[in-house]
Design goal:
The protein is mainly alpha-helical. The chain is globular.
Length: 355
């Protein structure tokens, strides 16, 4: 027996090895990096309108308050382009109602794009057939619900994370237990937000408990990004200097958003692999056709094909060469599909032959 065969047999026998491999292979099958990239695009699109909105709001807050403006000058956010330059000017920041309106509308468009991209990623990972996905109007209503829940959660967890890690900056002296309590509450709130997100976009037949592990993983990744991401981006901008500060900010924000998007996609994949038991997978299945598929491989590939059904009356059949070892799984799947309500495709009359 070769080394590859021994490794394959080992990960098939041990769940702790086969489950992570199944998650990675499902992530690759679903083109997870591209799903995360789409979320990143809309997330980045909404960042700068939010920045414009922040500048305008701060302009009203700092009006006739030079003490607050002086405190803000000493913060890390003053190192960011545009904001830092505006603060250094004699007139400081100035509020603008038009900027608030325009920035709010564009930010809402970007936020809806993020929600739509997350919704699409959820349906791809769960292999929901296209004809069972909500229509464009219902999809955007669901996205609005996600924007409201996620926006509120981000505000709460950002305040808690900032207070827990930089309490002295607010003139408050806290002990370790208080800081730890703020961190724990922040993680719990993040967990609740991601539970709500996965619940909004889960298929109807998926149980609530099946979305718990992935939501926890996504919440931990998001919390780590809140702790370290802002500091890393701020240090990169500060060290880059004036000439390359803008490039450093853009690249840092893209990397930050992309890692957050990867956390969302991986969280969804963890839920799917666990709920559908898409493990263990054959070790070499992504690399070659010369492999004996496991039942989890067959279920994953069948789901990927069935997800492309555009109409309820459309029927898709998947066949494999030398499929004898999967006859039992195939019969069970066929019986399940036959039990579900479906509409047969209408017969197409033959075309008349030319005379």
């Amino acid at each position: 027996m070769s080394l590859t065969e021994r490794l394959d047999a080992f990960q098939r026998r041990h769940r702790w090895a086969g489950f992570p491999l199944g998650v990675i292979y499902k992530f690759v099958d679903d083109q997870g990096p591209y799903l995360a990239a789409l979320i990143t695009y809309y997330g980045f699109l909404s960042i700068f309108p939010l920045l414009l909105l922040l500048i305008s709001v701060l302009g009203f807050v700092f009006e006739n308050r030079p003490d607050l403006q002086e405190q803000f000058l000493n913060s890390a956010l003053s190192q960011f382009p545009v904001i830092g330059e505006q603060l250094e000017q004699p007139q400081g920041l100035q509020g603008s109602v038009i900027a608030i309106a325009v920035g709010g509308l564009i930010a809402l468009y970007g936020a809806l794009g993020v929600a739509q991209a997350i919704q699409n990623a959820s349906y791809v990972t769960w292999a929901v057939p296209r004809h069972r996905r909500p229509n464009p109007f219902r999809a955007r209503l669901r996205s609005l619900g996600l924007v409201a829940v996620f926006g509120l959660g981000v505000i709460v967890t950002t305040i808690l994370s900032t207070f827990g890690s930089n309490a002295e900056a607010f003139g408050t002296s806290v002990r370790g237990r208080t800081t730890l309590g703020a961190v724990v509450v922040s993680i719990v709130v993040n967990w609740a937000v991601f539970l709500a997100m996965f619940r909004i976009f889960r298929p109807t037949q998926v149980r609530r408990r099946d979305i718990v592990p992935g939501a926890l993983v996504a919440a931990v990744i998001w919390q780590l990004l809140q702790w370290y991401g802002a500091g890393i981006v701020g240090n990169a901008v500060q060290r880059a200097g004036e000439s390359y500060g803008g490039f450093a900010l853009v690249l840092g924000l893209l990397a930050w958003i992309y890692v957050a998007a990867l956390g969302v996609v991986f969280g969804s994949e963890i839920n799917v692999v666990r709920a559908k038991r898409l493990y263990p997978r054959a070790l070499l299945t992504p690399f070659t056709d010369n492999v004996n598929l496991t039942d989890a491989d067959v279920r994953a590939y069948d789901d990927a094909v069935s997800a492309q059904k555009f109409k309820g009356f459309q029927s898709v059949t998947v066949a494999y060469e030398n499929d004898g070892q999967h006859a039992t799984a195939r019969q069970a799947r066929t019986a399940a599909e036959a039990a579900s309500p479906a509409t047969e495709a209408p017969e197409v009359p033959p075309e008349p032959s030319p005379e």
